[in-house]
User: Fold this.
Amino acid sequence: MYNEYNDLSFEEELLLSEAEIRHRQNSAVLVSECSTFTARIRTER
Assistant:
């Protein structure tokens, strides 16, 4: 049985999870950049 609504919600869920993954990866990158920056400041002092 084909249900257009289920199909659509599945597509939307996929998009949402992709966006969430990308957001988490960006956050991880930001955190690592901040820690390297802080470490550099500490070594320069």
